[in-house]
């Protein structure tokens, strides 16, 4: 699932896809790759990618080092895309700060939504979840 927001937190793009994976790590790398492609399609000059799976973020930043199998290629593609754009950064954030992405992904699975989703189609209780979290 890819969620793109502007510097004020407003949703710009939401895209989901059905990924049949057996491990969360693979899902996270595929989601990062989808987000990179979304940003490329939109031709954005400055992008901050946030992921809450530390192992996936590290694997991409380290160009697939210590990753085995077909995931290496996906990590390298993501790393290469990020390298082509000096103002694009991938950082790890705690899961609490990624609430909206997880809520939208869960809702998309439950409602069998796939592809581009308009923010207006997402229920308000999901869109407001980020504001419910109060930092420590």
UniProtKB/TrEMBL annotation:
Residue span, RNase H type-1 domain: 2-108
The record's section on PANTHER family has: OS05G0353850 PROTEIN, REVERSE TRANSCRIPTASE-LIKE PROTEIN
Give the species.
Answer: Morella rubra (Chinese bayberry)
Q: Which SUPFAM superfamilies match?
A: Ribonuclease H-like
Q: What is this protein called?
A: RNase H type-1 domain-containing protein
Q: Which InterPro entries match?
A: RNase_H-like, RNase_H-like_dom_plant, RNaseH-like_sf, RNaseH_domain, RNaseH_sf
Which superkingdom is the protein from?
Eukaryota
Signal peptide limits: none
What is an example of a GO molecular function annotated in this UniProt entry?
Answer: nucleic acid binding
């Amino acid at each position: 699932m890819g969620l793109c927001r502007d510097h004020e937190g407003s949703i710009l793009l939401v895209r989901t896809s059905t990924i049949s994976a057996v491990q969360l790590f693979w899902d996270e790398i595929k989601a990062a790759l989808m987000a990179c492609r979304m940003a490329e399609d939109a031709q954005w000059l400055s992008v901050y990618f946030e992921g809450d799976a530390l192992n996936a973020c590290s694997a991409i930043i380290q160009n697939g080092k210590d990753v085995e199998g077909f995931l290496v290629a996906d990590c390298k593609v993501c790393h290469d895309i990020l390298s082509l754009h000096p103002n694009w950064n991938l950082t790890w954030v705690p899961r609490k700060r990624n609430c909206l992405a997880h809520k939208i992904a869960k809702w998309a699975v439950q409602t069998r939504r796939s592809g581009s989703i308009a923010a207006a189609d997402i229920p308000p209780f999901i869109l407001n979840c980020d504001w419910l979290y109060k930092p420590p």
